[in-house]
Design goal:
The protein has 464 residues and is of the alpha/beta class. It has a single domain, classed as Metallo-beta-lactamase, Chain A, CATH 3.60.15. It has 14 helices and 15 strands. The chain has an 8-stranded mixed beta sheet. The protein has a 7-stranded mixed beta sheet with strand order 6-5-4-3-2-1-15. Helix 1 packs across helix 2. The radius of gyration is 22 Å and the shape is globular.
């Protein structure tokens, strides 16, 4: 197997190629990075007559799904062209402006609606209203910091991700011939008993997450999240002229006045500050001294992230773990369910893996010594560009020191972004992660190798 890890800004975009030349594309990163780095390579595959057997969208966050939407829009545009030229008998119909993408046979994706059921409407409406308020209350947002700023950014990102998820389903179901979740009928892509196995050429994909019990738990957390929101948000605000909408979670109140927006954003910020009491003060602080992360706090992992599709890929005894943005405990549960980790004493009998795509871009909320000691890899891929402090230097420290102590064999950390390639606001965070990696590379000479994607290259390539 070969894994190509594309520069995807703060997201993931991974192409797995089996020994017999079959392809699985996992996520698409951001639109801009997808167009510049992944699209040309996919066009080369199409020109060579190669196809993508499976496209996996791990979850709906924009840093994973935006590039996929761009790809599917291209697929849809070429479908229209081919219909017009063929059945439409319109040979002069113009070709789309972008190269023809490879044929995609299937897609795995757990839609927002399928995950949440009747909660989908209220959450979508609330996120849309909050996002509208954020766009109108720029000064209030800029004055916020700490947990409040992170929460406001999260709500805005949630609204974007929900909209992207709706667009994705429309493209797949209505505008392309791609089959969605076909092996699962109309159900979700989940950890099942027995574990679902899918053959793609000479490789076997094992679905080890998310688990249904965690999705049920997430629905309860979403219900609690709704009730924690300020009443000014849950009421749906006021319509123009001061009249109450009269319908809870009614969604956007366009046109919302700037004063209304400022009040709503301040309410959200205060709720975020109250919810953050007792949280780790060093979270996202890249200037703090890197340390071993002993345990994680799963409640700090956002609900869309914890619903990530997680895959274990196996071919001829070689293994690759694709984690999306999943929480540590859920990945370990999936490995246990698949028989890769023993239920008893897993630290004494770790799972030895050839490649791990490190979960959630190296966030300190998703990885601790627990994971690092139970999953020992030859290669760790960190796809991040400094956004949100990822990859966190303490994650880098935890991975290297735990792995070096557990096993004397050599291993490599692969970074998809350099300090210079990311945007100026993220360079400090990227610099801190790479500095720690290189410090420990020097400390463990001959055992640890640090590889950073060159700024003029579109992807890292790893032989699994």
């Amino acid at each position: 197997m070969r894994l190509k890890a594309f520069f995807a800004a703060d997201g993931d975009c991974l192409l797995l190629t089996t020994a017999d030349g079959r392809h699985v594309l996992v996520d698409g990163g951001r639109t801009g990075s997808f167009r510049e780095n992944a699209r040309p390579h996919l066009a080369e595959l199409a020109d060579a007559g190669e196809e993508v057997d499976l496209l996996v969208v791990s979850h709906i966050d924009a840093d994973h799904i935006s590039g996929v939407i761009d790809l599917l829009e291209e697929v849809a545009a070429w479908e229209v062209h081919d219909f017009q030229v063929g059945e439409g008998q319109n040979p002069t119909f113009p070709e789309p402006p972008t190269p023809r993408p490879p044929r995609i046979h299937g897609l795995w994706h757990n839609s927002w609606r399928a995950q949440l059921g009747d909660l989908e409407g209220p959450i979508t409406a609330l996120a849309a209203q909050a996002s509208e308020a954020l766009s109108l209350a720029t000064s209030t947002v800029e004055d916020s910091d700490g947990a409040a700023r992170l929460a406001l950014d999260s709500v805005s990102g949630l609204a974007e991700s929900i909209a992207d998820g709706v667009t994705l389903l429309r493209l797949v179901d209505d505008e392309t011939p791609i089959r969605r979740n076909e092996p699962f009928g109309s159900g979700l892509v989940l950890l099942r008993s027995p574990v679902h196995e899918q053959q793609v050429g000479s490789a076997t994909l094992h679905v080890i997450g998310p688990g249904e019990q965690h999705l049920r738990k997430l629905r309860e957390e979403w219900k609690a999240w709704l009730t924690r929101q300020p009443s000014s948000v849950r009421r749906g605000g006021q319509r123009p002229g001061g009249q109450e909408d009269g319908h809870e979670n009614a969604g956007s109140t366009l046109p919302m006045s700037p004063p209304q927006a400022r009040d709503l954003v301040e309410d959200l910020a205060q709720a975020a500050q109250a919810a953050a009491v007792g949280e780790d003060a060093d979270a996202h602080d890249t200037s703090a001294r890197p340390r071993i992360i002993e345990t994680t706090r799963p409640t700090n992992v956002t609900t869309p992230n914890r619903a990530s599709i997680t895959l274990l890929v196996e071919e001829d005894g070689r293994t690759l773990l694709l984690t999306g943005d999943a929480a540590e405990e859920e990945i370990l549960e999936g490995l246990t369910a698949s028989g890769r980790l023993p239920a008893q004493d897993p630290e004494a009998n770790p799972f030895r893996c050839n490649v791990v795509k490190v979960q959630h871009h190296g966030s300190e909320h998703n990885l601790s010594r627990v994971f690092a000691s139970r999953v020992l890899a030859d290669h760790y891929v960190l796809s991040a560009d400094g956004a949100h402090g990822n990859p966190n230097p303490s994650v880098v420290h935890t991975l290297i020191e735990t792995r070096a102590e557990a096993d004397p064999s050599p291993f490599t950390l692969w970074f998809t972004c350099s300090e210079e390639r990311t945007i100026p606001q993220r360079r400090k965070a990227m610099r801190a992660a790479l500095k720690e990696a290189r410090r420990l590379e020097s400390r463990h000479t001959g055992q640890v190798t640090v590889t950073v994607l060159a700024d003029d290259q579109p992807f890292l390539e790893i032989e699994v």
